[in-house]
Amino acid sequence: MTALLLRDLRLAIRAGGGFGLGLAFFLILATLVPLAVGPQPTLLGPIAPGILWLGALLACLLSLDRIFALDLEDGSLDLIATAPLPLEGVATIKALTHWLTTGLPLTIIAPALGLLLFLPSSATLWLVIALLIGTPALSWLGTFGAALTVGLKRGSLLLSLLVLPLYIPTLVFGAEVVRRGAEGLPTATPLALLGGITLGCIALLPFATAAALRVNLR
Amino acid sequence: MTFTVTDLSCRRGEITVLRDVTFSVAAGEALVLRGPNGAGKTTLLRTLAGLTPPVRGTVDTDVCAYAAHADGLKSQLTVAENLTFWARVFGRRDIAPAVHAFDLRALLDRRAADLSAGQKRRVALARLPLTARPVWLMDEPTVSLDAANVALFGRAVAVHLQTGGCAILATHIDLGLPDTRTLDVTRFAATQTDDTTDPFAEALE
């Protein structure tokens, strides 16, 4: 299992691995918004939590179709499926790698992008906490979508359509945590719901992902 | 050990391709699958490897190591990294015997992307001894190998057979193995219209 994790992390940072693609997208989105709606702090401040969450979500989506498609193309997915690794474990490792290479870096640079969007400084900490707790759900849900669509021609568009609706709860509660944090309101309720969604995804989705892979590998 | 398969029915997609496949391979023996294109050789191998669940019958997939058409190499990784990954997946550390058997020492630090088709094939086949599994399933293993490398591969399989393993391979080339039997898979071909359970099948015909 650690061998697979190390291999995938190594592949992600090698040339053509796609690491940084999501980050660059996130950065560009956050710079485009002030250009599009105008640079007034009173305008940007209130929408900053929503923009940052939406950006994180779309950046996550960019690299989803690579999770299994590359392994299927070169034949290593077949070989991994016949190896003594449970497919549920493979699904977990794939989702974890995706989070380590997209969700975690996004969380780390989010405060800097918050400055660009005049996010109130009281909300910065909440932004980091909400992203840290919420983005794993995006990776685990995305891995499930990737397993469903692996092997399909033009599967990545279908993947986006499948996965985006599933991201709604995380988006709603994640942005709510930051909004409440910015206004100094208690954040415990949305934070608990956000954490609940993530834990549920981590616990249950690997089984669904493995089942989808088994069907698609036949 | 003897690897036995009884009354196995295999499918490709929704179609049952092979029916009541029965054979056994003893330790030290190689079984060569023969049959024209589309006879079901790959289907049988994929079923034995555990990738396609059989329609009927069971397979002990835990003893099988599978080498498919595709090489399954990561082109951005070096040969050593590719082999070490597979060794660790199968709980082993030492890739030296496999490297030696397939003469890969000079290629270890090269990226898989920079290898020729035949070299990639050799790296893909070197994965088999790393699995330490007794039954090697190989689908056209000699594709893109030249005569010298076919001989090299034949010796590696022979060593595996001598150490108590067995091999099931789909190939048209004589590898010069000592103890070889052939199995014609067309014997087990399932007729298309056999007991179909699809109520719309008739309407479609």
What can you tell me about this protein's structure?
- The complex is a heterodimer of chains A (218) and B (205).
- With 218 residues, chain A is an all-alpha fold.
- Chain A has one domain.
- Chain A contains 9 helices and no strands.
- The radius of gyration of chain A is 18 Å and the shape is elongated.
- Chain A starts with a helix and ends with a helix.
- Chain B is built from 6 helices and 7 strands.
- Chain B is α/β, with parallel strands linked by helices.
- In chain B, α2 packs parallel to α4.
- The chains are: A mainly alpha (218), B alpha/beta (205).
- At the A-B interface, α1 and α5 of A face β4 and α2 of B.
- Chain B: Residues 3-204 form the ABC transporter domain.
- Chain B: Keywords: ATP-binding, Cytochrome c-type biogenesis, Membrane, Nucleotide-binding, Translocase, Transport.
- Chain B: InterPro entries: AAA+_ATPase, ABC_transporter-like_ATP-bd, ABC_transptr_haem_export_CcmA, P-loop_NTPase.
Number of helix segments of chain A?
Answer: 9
Kindly report the spatial arrangement of strands forming the biggest sheet of chain B: 4-5-6-3-7
Strand content of chain B: 15-25%
The global form of chain A is elongated
Number of domain modules of chain A: 1
> So what's the CATH class of chain B?
Alpha Beta
In total, the number of strands of chain B is 7
| Secondary structure tally, helices of chain B | 6
- Uncertain segments of chain B are none
Count of discrete structural domains of chain B: 1
Radius of gyration of chain B: 18 Å
- Largest chain-chain contact? A-B, 24 and 30 residues
Name the quaternary structure. heterodimer
Output the CATH topology of chain B: Rossmann fold
Q: Mind summarizing the main beta sheet of chain B? A: 5 strands, parallel
Q: What CATH architecture of chain B do you see?
A: 3-Layer(aba) Sandwich
The low-confidence runs of chain A, each spanning 5 or more residues with pLDDT under 50, are none
Distance between the termini of chain A: 23 Å
Query: Structural class of chain A, please?
Result: mainly alpha
SSE arrangement of chain B, N to C: EEEHEHHHEHEEH
Mean pLDDT of chain A: 90
Organism (chain B): Jannaschia helgolandensis
GO biological process, one term (chain B): cytochrome complex assembly
Domain ABC transporter (chain B): 3-204
Keywords (chain B): ATP-binding, Cytochrome c-type biogenesis, Membrane, Nucleotide-binding, Translocase, Transport
